[in-house]
Amino acid sequence: MRAYAQVALPWSDPVAALGRVADQPWAIGFLSGGSQPGARWSYVAAEPAKTLSLRPIDEAEPFAALAELAGPVVEPDPNGPPFQGGVAGLACYELADRLEALRLPRLGRWPDLAAARYPAVLAFDHAERRVLALGRGAEPAEAEAAAARAAAWLDLPAPAPKRLDARLEADDPAAYEAAVADVVRRIGEGEIFQANIARRWRGRLAAKARPFDLLAALAADSPAPFAAYLRLRDRVVISNSPERFVQAGREGEGLLARTEPIKGTAPRGADPAADAAQAAALAASEKDRAENLMIVDLMRNDLSRVCRAGGVAAPELFTVATFANVHHLVSTVTGRLAEGRSALDLLAACFPPGSITGAPKVQAMKVIAGHEAPRGPFFGSMFLLGADGTLDSNVLIRTAAFTLERDGWHVEARAGAGIVADSIPALERQETEAKISALAAALGGAR
Length: 447
Prior knowledge:
Blueprint: E1 3-9, H1 14-21, E2 28-31, E3 41-45, E4 50-54, H2 62-70, E5 86-91, E6 113-118, E7 120-125, E8 130-137, H3 140-152, E9 169-170, H4 173-188, E10 194-204, H5 212-221, E11 226-232, E12 235-241, E13 244-250, E14 255-259, E15 262-267, H6 272-284, H7 286-304, E16 313-322, E17 326-336, H8 343-350, E18 358-359, H9 361-369, E19 381-386, E20 391-394, E21 399-405, E22 408-419, H10 425-443
Antiparallel strand pairs: 1-8, 2-3, 2-11, 3-7, 4-6, 5-6, 5-19, 7-8, 9-10, 10-18, 10-22, 11-12, 12-21, 13-14, 13-20, 14-17, 15-17, 16-17, 19-20, 21-22
Domain Chorismate-utilising enzyme C-terminal: 174-435
Protein name: Aminodeoxychorismate synthase component I
Domain Anthranilate synthase component I N-terminal: 11-131
């Protein structure tokens, strides 16, 4: 994969481009939308050269398997996009069971890890309105052929969208409030400081509808900077995530690690004045700031395991970020990877994301397992591991998981809330409903 080719193409919408290959096994997309900083590049890939799927019974060490799949690190093209081909995939939440002895049950047929090496990629530069067809190979001719394959995807027919008509049914709200109350009790007894407890919604798509139609609807109505898509034969993950998990980028000497945890949520207001008031109240909320700070401290600890001593910092705290249906508090933690440490070391040190587990992380995960069904892809991560050794990844929130059964596509979605000592169960339930609202509306309503 040392040879690299790059061909400039006229602008094309990345969502439409993904729709042309979305039904192929191992089709994958990372879509950056909205007005948040960093929402510049989107990527579409298909036709991988090699795939990796680790089931719970497989004994392979996942991060060693990822490193083998990726192959030797190569120098990036200085004129190329941040991701120039390489490995991309899905780390399900229960991958954590391979990092800590938690004995977590699994969700259906979902693997712990699913990844592939993609020599052909389309990169979409939203800032400059250009498309780049990228190719990698052992020789220049092989790289050029891969770039040509990527460019050809833009000429494939685009299936017409269908109505989804999947009205989601939520699990018992009273059971969720009881779970929140139990977590508050455990916090009061000193067992944990915080845990993220999620609710579940389920439904079924209308006949002939396809999961990709949900992603298209979300991209049109509530674009997010870390949206993602993956097709695994009879399973699909679609995420409209606003949250970056971990990034390892080439900034200065070595790799700079970054994480941007979200904690603290307020619904959008009905008019500009009410909306501004909601944002201001969130920024001033002691509860939400404390909730956010706990996860910042947790992520600082995680980064310190693989970063240079004394260099981990939080340059931005409690920034209000606004999305289609909610405001969030976002903080940033950075550090420079220590000598001999790689982006995969960073991913392993931080997985699963602190913002959807709690503090202390391991004990919070044990508490979560007592209240939730296995999470599978929910609250895991989708990631891009570049051929040059860089990494970017999201937190799989605002996510729907699809499974193909005899009667069609079944869909499940989840939304959680960070529970702290002064959490009020009914308000936490309402927070989950605000978070799920855009996804539920795109699917066709919720009850």
